TrEMBL record:
<feature type="domain" description="DUF305">
    <location>
        <begin position="41"/>
        <end position="177"/>
    </location>
</feature>
<dbReference type="Pfam" id="PF03713">
    <property type="entry name" value="DUF305"/>
</dbReference>
<dbReference type="InterPro" id="IPR012347">
    <property type="entry name" value="Ferritin-like"/>
</dbReference>
<keyword id="KW-0732">Signal</keyword>
<feature type="signal peptide">
    <location>
        <begin position="1"/>
        <end position="25"/>
    </location>
</feature>
<dbReference type="InterPro" id="IPR005183">
    <property type="entry name" value="DUF305_CopM-like"/>
</dbReference>
<protein>
    <recommendedName>
        <fullName>DUF305 domain-containing protein</fullName>
    </recommendedName>
</protein>
């Protein structure tokens, strides 16, 4: 799984670098630009990431054996649903750049991981859904950092700023909760 994760991190990073290099080569004559390819990549990848996070959140809310896991699932759904709506709205104004294969977003919970979670129950499910969510948040924070480094679309940068704090806020809480579970 780690190999697959690294592969997708490398693919997404390469797409950002290629896009950034293309923007540099084009010059900066367009002072009125409101977005760039980094923004389009971020919006597209983050929408895909949010769709899966909401799916995992719904699973946690419905299957969690611990009330804190169910609460976490409901929180993810309630926070990320309006963000996903915004991302979808922005995607019409700021499309992903053409001819860039970005692969899966950083930290994306794969279909295989989701299927495994669906088959688990009890404390095993609770712990695994929390740890999968922590990994997902780590990936989202990495994407947010790239947006903040190179993106110029203000709404995306605002969202990226809030997501970038996950390593110091939400991720430690997820690990702590997973460690508190019995077994």
């Amino acid at each position: 799984m780690m190999h697959l994760f690294r592969k997708h991190v490398i693919a997404f990073s390469a797409a950002v670098l290629v896009t950034s290099a293309g923007l540099t080569a084009c010059g900066s004559d367009d002072a009125a630009a409101t977005h760039n390819d980094t923004d389009g990549l971020f919006i597209s990848a983050m929408a895909m990431h949010h769709e899966r996070a909401i799916e995992v959140g719904q699973l946690a809310a419905n299957k969690g054996s611990d009330a804190r896991v169910r609460d976490f699932g409901r929180l993810i759904v309630s926070q990320q649903s309006p963000e996903l709506k915004a991302l979808r709205g922005w995607s019409s104004e700021v499309p992903a750049p053409p001819n860039v294969d970005m692969g899966m977003p950083d930290g994306y919970v794969t279909d295989a991981e989701l299927a495994r979670l669906r088959g688990e129950t009890g404390v095993t499910f609770d712990r695994d859904v929390l740890l999968a969510s922590a990994s997902s948040e780590t990936g989202a924070a990495a994407m947010a950092q790239r947006e903040l480094a190179s993106g110029i679309y203000d709404p995306a940068r605002t969202l990226a700023t809030s997501i970038a704090t996950a390593p110091t806020t939400q991720i430690p809480k997820l690990h702590e909760l997973a460690a508190q579970l019995p077994g």
